[in-house]
Amino acid sequence: MKIKFLGGAGTVTGSKTLVESNGIRILIDCGQFQGIKPLRELNWEPLPILPNTIDFVLLTHGHLDHCGWLPRLVNQGFEGKIYCTSPTKDVTKLILLDSAKIQEEEAERANKEQFSKHEKAEPLYDLAQTEKVFPLFRVIQPNEEVQLDAEISATFRNAGHIIGACSIELKLENKTLVFSGDIGRDDDVLMYAPTKPTTADYIFLESTYGNRIHPEEDVKLSLETYINNAFQMEGTVIIPSFAVERAQSLMYLLWQLKKEDRIPNIPYVIDTPMGISVLEVFTNNKKWHKLSENDCIEMCRMFTMNTDYQETINTIFDKQPKVVIAASGMITGGRVLSYLERYIGLPETTVIMVGYQAEGTRGRKLLEGATELKIYGKYYPVLAKVLEIEGLSAHGDQNDLLNWLSDLKTKPKKVFLVHGENQPADELRIKIQEKYGFDCSVPMMGQGLEL
Fold it and tell me: What domains are there in the chain, each with its CATH number?
């Protein structure tokens, strides 16, 4: 059996792991690279194998760094089946269509305003190419073993990270391989705790927060304090947010604060059409999360939901204090850029970062104290307050990741730490070896091995 790490190794983006066994090729996730330019440029490179030789894609969940390269894969010849859970299928559709639209718009804008270094800026993929992905989806139920081939089966188990997210247990050649996908937190606001593996010969474990312990932070108190402080300064609060799970978690917490009369009676705006669409996915998949139908309805009533871009423009130029949740979470694109163009240079503005910020993203730059921000080829001075709430991360921290390994009945032959930058992955490697004595390594991008 051969394994090749085509992405998500040494970085938290572009997750792609190839498994080859008896002439069958399986790709675990098919993510897009984000962040620094050398990583983003990898999205334009062909895979080291022909996409038409891949038989299956198994999708752990619908975030762009796990599904965002599917249109390229299909456009380059992949015709196999894409297996995932029902919510993952719905979320992936929303995310890919949104991504394609942003790619098209940004290429068009770059050509119009001539800030591209290329003679003609092209989108990584367009809406027409994206539509070709969807007929290949095959929905599977969690905890049900699915035969991919006569001697290969897969079982998806809840990973808690976002709605529909799963770890994948792959059985082949009398071995069990477990791919964690992204592991959620044991005490998430909306998601249930991840299901821990009990048997595995080889484990491929994410390590995003492999060197971090989430602070014992009262997230509601932080939100309350930051919003009230901004209101006293007559400023706007902008929260760049991932459209899936994070936006809904924020809505839930703000709704709770409003019910408790802890935050002011000002407009609360959701400006992510995809985030609004995800609310429907929550409504249609009640067994995947903790929100009741009534909670969902009541929570949504509190928010102004912008779908049309004219509504975004109206909100941007509305001078009254307000709280805006807008995608994208790492400020790599989306409507949050339009808000920051106007508000990042105002000292009364508060920007609250609420999730992981990959290397090279605008979000990471803001957290690291950038004094200016480049948006659509122009530089804007950063005069706004930039604050962070770590307690909202949908990723498990070092303790959660260690705990996820705690139910294994027998020692795995090896644990590979993927989907993490090198330092967090290496620190987690040391912790796993100290706590469990497991043989553990951090693979490099492009590395291949035989099991």
Answer: 2-212+394-450 (3.60.15.10), 219-392 (3.40.50.10890)
